[in-house]
Design brief:
Chain lengths: 635, 628
């Protein structure tokens, strides 16, 4: 059995469902009776070729996202599909015409030959339309599926470019639906919407032409009575339904983000007895969504049956006027019959168009939202002229750096800091003083408002992200693990790492014992966010991940805060080996960790107030000395 | 099955019971009624049958809607018949005045419109109501599930079931009945056709059996395919979800390319199955849809011949052709309908799969509330392991008298947090018992245990809402004074006051726009506000500096007075809060005593706190060999 699934490989079809592939897990997929048929289908699936990923931080399509641009690359196939649609519609609309011929030239002229000829051509046309529609379905589905792949990859890739600040502010539920439900709405717009729109519009035109050809005067009168009524109603429908559908979209977004956050925090919900409260809260958001839906039901219920009614009233009018004409001998019964049939055919597409309207609304709304998302540029972006950072010596410098997350409230002020190559440098300071922020600037998650951050003398804004970050090993304050195997997590930065290298990293951080205890060793699945591991184990894995990355510079932000002291000591020994000759920036509240550093800087209120060795700082009797005294008293 | 039934009955009861429970306070006004019923608990029933109780909750308006639809459809079916009479009697034989027929047609049109409005309006509303019920029921159910469930199941999976699957079922419920009625009206049409001419009717419906056969085949082929489609969509959702939540790691290790690779692969797997689905569709649907038109050709041929023979009127031909055109719609829909049924069935099963999961930790039938506990905690020979894995705790014994503060120390991953989780009964023990005031927690109601046992977890999770709401999480209607007092005790009030909107500041996703120490302090405040009798601090100050930690401790000393407290800690400063320390090792209490005693008597204890003893240069100097 393979456990390779999860976020990295896309997962085996159903093994990937639980992300874990164990057969005793629920949600492992298919009910048994289905399994065989599913397997049969999957057996025919060709291997998905490994396509090289074409991704650039700096260069991407910056033009606004429009339906036209989205469809443009497939214009040949689209034209083909359109051609098929035209043919299909024509073959479909021949029916009433043949009926008229059959009635007038066949029945009334008492000619069985004509009848046979009509029936035969009818059957031929049906055969043709079947073939055409078959081709049309396949072509549009192919194009549609292709468009979807490109769209999904494009949105996803674009999100990879956006900066950390964006993700901190935007609710991930919203970004989630931008990537899941919006493409689906767009696919529906394309596959059902646009094709049907073409079919129905064409039908409408053909039928109108045929009506006029049959009897221009009658056609004019009937259409003049019917079309304005339809038009008025359609206009009303448009203006009434537009805002209602927008409302539906907003409400469903609320529902999803409530659901998503409840699941993310489900352990807190349980621990704090919030179940009842949240259920009611959810009922409220779902209820609001339902009301928004109900509001659309209102307009739909008026429009659909209303247009049907107009259609039948149109028939009544036709019989009133056309019937009189027949009675006066100005029209044949066959003509009237054909007219009646065409009139039915005239309303059918209108009915269809109404149904499409929902699809159209949702599709265009999706286009708008996606355009907004894709127009969002990274606040911390890669310059087009950015060059790769050569192999790092490890000198880190912050020059006169001022930084604020929110304008007006600077978190760092005039910070000057120079970490020498190969040095182990610690940052200490009161919580909230800005130590993690310095680490984030060094990794260029954010850019300073003023001043420069340099590594080896190079302004970080001038180098490519990839060259910078592949040489940094960052262990953030909150150790995040993906659903996937332990191996995938540890080898995250270097998926090609061998199992031995992964095991060596586990050894180094002292988690080998745990790995050996687990049923599948390093191939044991990790649940999302690593919730099934202890807090310390998560930190150890995050450390192992940084070790495997073989960074030139290591940034540890409270990376050992949840470890017992012995394990932490082990890690420090391991670090000494790994760090041989490399620069390390260590942030720690545990002064025992900090004091081992070559030099220490104390951050206070966004400024660096002192720098020196442990002994120097203690001797200076400043802030550090005071913190150390408190620490020594209590630890 | 019986227990499933009981569960659902209980669910139904509590779905209906709104008012705030004293232990589970509710701070929002309930603006909508709870659903009337959940799905049928019997798993052996068909998916539609299981859904029935939900539908039945709305059967009144559902019936009205269906009746109105029927009326509207029948009017529609009657129109061609009247048209035939008009052509034959008023125009061909001229035995009746034209106006009568015209008025009849117009009337039918009006009724069709009116009844159609009623039918659509209520059908849609019923479908939305059912969607509403399903969403609320599923959420309610998920909110009852135990930790062990969430240890196994990915939230992306749950979200896709709670969203796209429910929507698929809703689609079916909106259009399904309508299509069924259309098919019913088709029977009425056949009746009318038969009344006009039996042989011609037979000719016209000759192609029907093919439609049936092909339709069934299509359905059988699409079912597994739609299942795969759904699951691949869920795969994509999972990948997207993980990417969003792991964005910091993705960026830190420059893994964007690998991630895009993953999504592109998942998207292409979905693409393949989508195209497969379309191919199957393409092979069947056009034939199914064309069959009625073959009937039309036959009608023209045979009907024409019959008319020439004088056995049929021209009006009848018009009526028949109109009917065959009308039949096209149900036929077209029939194919669509079959696909929709299959999809809905697949989706419904996926929803049921969740609803059929039972919470592993739940109230016993005769559970009673824990009221006014003194807070004596007793772990009695507890054995516990997660799932099938090897036990984390075995033979774990710990007695904490009411009001005492005990520190639990031990190596990373030795099971300290597990002890906390068992006390709050997030999991049930495999062997032994956890007691509060001598009562086995399994005999108590969950809500009461959790109301009296508070945990500050080792990972401070915050919700995307105001700081105030985060702190008042356990008591949504807590007063501002209480919130501020809790924040002050947790050492959080200073930094909160400095935020631009103070307590009304809305924190970002998971609180990531606060520093680690700030999050931890809000998390502590949240637990303090709940004012539990038994408090567990699980490494709760790991990310704060020494000064803040000291001030929190000073505040806590007073607050912990009289409370039973378990502190899980790696730092001596935290251990100092405790009256007594226990060392957890190999799943049991390895040593128990004051810090000083353990330091002297227990080498393993000293080892866990190794830093303290050897931090004067153990790194450089190997421990001196003891000379013999
Ligand atoms: N994304 C953000 N948006 C807005 N403010 C932020 C953001 N991240 C951090 N801050 C604020 O900036 C200040 C410094 O945060 P930082 O994370 O650097 O603190 P720290 O020194 O690392 O603290 P700790 O030791 O508690 O982790 C804090 O007041 C915090 O609230
Ligand atoms: N939900 C879970 N499912 C499966 N295994 C788990 C789960 N939670 C914890 N474990 C495992 O049980 C063991 C004990 O975990 P626990 O969280 O109790 O450790 P801990 O002593 O609190 O460690 P730390 O000091 O790192 O927080 C660990 O090996 C962990 O991997
Ligand atoms: Mg823990």
């Amino acid at each position: 059995m393979s456990f390779g699934g999860g976020a990295f490989a896309g997962g085996p079809v159903f093994g990937g469902l639980g992300g874990q592939g164990g057969q005793n897990l629920p949600f492992a997929g298919v009910p048994t009776e289905l399994q065989e048929r599913v397997d049969e289908i999957l057996a025919t699936e060709p291997d998905v070729a490994d396509e090289a990923v074409d991704f650039s931080q700096a260069e991407y399509d910056r033009r606004p996202f429009t339906l036209g641009r989205f469809l443009a690359p497939h214009w040949v196939a689209l034209l083909g599909a359109l051609g098929l649609v035209v043919l299909e519609t024509i073959t479909l609309q021949a029916g009433p015409l043949l009926t008229k011929i059959a009635i007038d030239s066949g029945i009334r002229a008492r000619s069985t030959q004509v009848l046979f000829a009509v029936a035969a051509s009818y059957v031929v046309l049906i055969g043709l339309s079947m073939l055409i529609s078959r081709a049309r379905i396949v072509v549009t589905a192919r194009v549609g599926a292709d468009l979807m792949v490109r769209l999904r990859v494009r949105i996803f890739a674009h999100l990879q470019r956006l900066s950390l600040g964006f993700f901190t502010e935007e609710k991930s539920g919203v970004l989630f639906s931008r990537q899941t439900s919006d493409p689906v709405s767009l696919a529906a717009l394309f596959q059902e919407g646009l094709v049907q729109l073409a079919v129905q519009a064409l039908t409408l035109m053909i039928v109108t032409g045929l009506l006029v050809a049959l009897n221009a005067w009658l056609a004019t009168i009937v259409l003049l009575a019917v079309v304005p009524a339809m038009l008025l109603m359609t206009l009303w429908f448009r203006s009434a339904s537009g805002p209602r559908y927008l409302d539906v979209r907003d409400r469903i977004a609320d529902v999803l983000s409530h659901l998503q956050e409840s699941l993310a925090g489900v352990r807190i919900v349980t621990a704090f007895n919030r179940r009842r409260h949240n259920v009611i809260e959810h009922r409220n958001v779902v209820g609001a969504y339902r009301e928004a839906n109900d509001a659309t039901a209102q307009v739909n219920a008026v429009y659909g049956p209303g247009s049907e009614m107009i259609g039948i009233l149109g028939q009544a009018l036709l019989f009133l006027i056309g019937g009189r004409m027949v009675l006066r001998g100005e029209l044949t019964v066959g003509d009237l019959a054909a007219f009646a049939l065409y009139l039915t055919a005239f309303f059918a597409p209108i009915q269809q168009l109404v149904q499409l309207y929902t699809v159209y609304q949702q599709g265009t709304a999706a286009v708008v939202k996606l355009r907004e998302l894709l127009a969002e540029g990274p606040t911390v972006g890669e310059r087009t002229a950015a060059h790769p950072l050569p192999s790092i010596e490890g000198e880190i410098a912050l020059e006169n750096v001022t930084f604020s997350y929110q304008p007006g409230t600077p978190v760092l002020r005039d910070v000057d800091l120079r970490v020498r190559p190969g040095e182990t440098f610690a940052l200490v300071g009161a919580t909230g003083s800005g130590t993690s922020t310095i680490a984030k600037l060094v990794a260029r998650f954010y850019d300073p408002d003023s001043g420069v951050v340099r590594i080896d003398g190079q302004d970080l804004r001038e180098v490519t992200f990839e060259s910078l970050r592949t040489q940094l090993g960052i262990v953030p304050q909150e150790p995040f693990l993906f659903a996937g195997s332990l191996r995938d997590n540890v080898a995250f930065a270097r998926p090609a790492a061998t199992d031995d290298e992964v095991l060596a990293a586990c050894d180094a951080v002292g988690i080998r014992e745990l790995v050996d205890r687990l049923p599948y060793g390093i191939h044991t699945p990790v649940h999302e966010r690593g919730v099934t591991l202890s807090a310390g184990e998560r930190q150890l894995l995050a450390l192992a991940r940084a070790f495997v990355a073989e960074p030139r510079v290591l940034v540890l932000d409270e990376a050992t805060s949840n470890l017992d002291l012995r394990t932490e000591a082990l890690i420090e020994h391991a670090l000494d080996v790994v760090l041989e000759g490399r620069t390390a920036l260590i942030i720690a509240h545990r002064l025992a960790t900090a004091r081992r550093a070559d030099r220490i800087a104390t951050v206070h209120d966004g400024q660096i107030v002192e720098i020196g060795t442990h002994e120097d700082l203690v001797a200076q009797g400043g802030r550090y000395a005071e913190m150390f005294a408190t620490w020594a008293r209590h630890y | 099955m019986r227990s499933g039934l009981e569960r659902t009955l209980r669910d139904l009861e509590s779905l209906a019971d709104d008012p705030s429970h004293p232990l589970e306070p509710v701070g929002v006004e309930s603006r909508y009624d709870p659903p009337r019923s959940s799905i049928h608990p019997d798993r052996a029933l068909s998916w539609l049958r299981r859904l029935w109780p939900v539908v039945a909750g709305h059967r009144g308006i559902f019936a009205v809607a269906l009746l109105a639809s029927l009326a509207s459809l029948l009017c529609g079916v009657a129109v061609p018949r009247v048209m035939m009479a008009a052509i034959d009697d008023a125009l061909t034989t001229r035995t009746a005045p034209l106006e009568g027929f015209v008025i009849a047609i117009a009337l039918l049109g009006l009724i069709r419109g009116g009844a159609g409005f009623v039918s659509r309006f209520w059908l849609f509303r019923v479908a939305y109501a059912i969607e509403n019920d399903l969403r609320v029921t599923l959420y309610d159910h998920l909110s009852r599930m135990s930790f062990s469930f969430y240890d196994r199941v990915q939230s992306g999976q749950l979200i896709s079931r709670a969203n796209s699957d429910i929507r698929t079922v809703q689609m079916f419920l909106t259009f399904g009945p309508l299509i069924c009625l259309t098919i019913l009206s088709f029977l009425a049409a056949i009746g009318l056709m038969l009344s006009i001419s039996v042989p011609l009717t037979i000719v016209a419906i000759l192609p029907l059996p093919f439609v049936g056969v092909l339709g069934a085949r299509l359905g059988r082929l699409t079912f597994p395919i739609s299942w795969i489609v759904q699951s691949r969509m869920a795969d994509i959702a999972t990948t997207v979800e993980e990417n969003l939540s792991g964005v910091r790691v993705v960026k830190a290790f420059s893994a964007e390319r690998a991630q895009i690779h993953a999504i592109s692969k998942a998207a292409r797997r979905l693409q393949w199955i989508n195209v497969r689905q379309a191919e199957v569709q393409a092979a069947h649907a056009p034939v199914i849809e064309s069959m009625p038109r073959v009937g039309m050709a036959l009608v023209l041929l045979v009907g024409g011949w019959l008319t020439i023979e004088g056995r049929l009127t021209i009006g009848a031909i018009v009526a028949f052709t109109t009917y065959v055109v009308m039949l096209q719609a149900p036929f077209r829909m029939f194919g669509f309908f079959l696909m929709m049924v299959q999809r809905a069935a697949a989706s419904a099963l996926r929803i049921y799969e969740v609803l059929d999961e039972e919470p592993e930790v739940r109230d016993r039938g005769d559970a009673h509330d824990l009221t006014d506990p003194r807070g004596a905690v007793h772990f009695q020979n507890v054995t516990f392991g997660y799932g099938d894995a090897a036990p984390v705790l075995s033979g774990f014994d710990l007695d904490v008298p009411a009001g005492e503060t005990v520190a639990v120390v031990g190596r990373t991953g030795c099971g300290k947090s597990t002890v906390a989780r068992l006390l709050a009964r997030f999991y049930d023990v495999d062997g032994g018992a956890v007691r509060i005031d001598g009562e086995d927690v399994r005999d108590l109601t969950l809500a009461s245990v959790r109301a009296h046992v508070g945990i500050v977890p080792d990972e401070p999770f915050l919700f995307t809402t105001s700081i105030r709401n985060n702190i008042a999480y356990a008591q949504p209607d807590a007063s501002d004074e209480d919130v501020i007092a809790a924040a002050r005790a947790a050492g959080a009030s200073d930094f909160i006051d400095r935020l631009p909107e103070a307590y009304d500041t809305v924190v970002g996703e998971r609180g990531y726009d606060l520093s680690g120490g700030q999050r931890q302090r809000i998390s502590i405040a949240r637990s303090l506000l709940a004012n539990p009798r038994v408090l567990i601090l699980d490494d709760a100050t790991s990310a704060v500096d020494v000064h803040v930690e000291q001030s929190i401790h000073d505040a806590l000393e007073a607050l912990l007075e009289g409370r039973t407290t378990i502190v899980i800690a790696h730092r001596l400063s935290t251990i100092a809060l405790a009256d007594r320390v226990v060392l957890l090792d190999s799943g049991r209490v390895a040593a128990d005593g004051t810090h000083g005693e353990l330091m002297r008597s227990e080498p393993r204890y000293a080892e866990v706190l190794a830093h303290l003893e050897d931090d004067t240069g153990a790194r450089d100097a190997p421990a001196p060999e003891v000379a013999p």
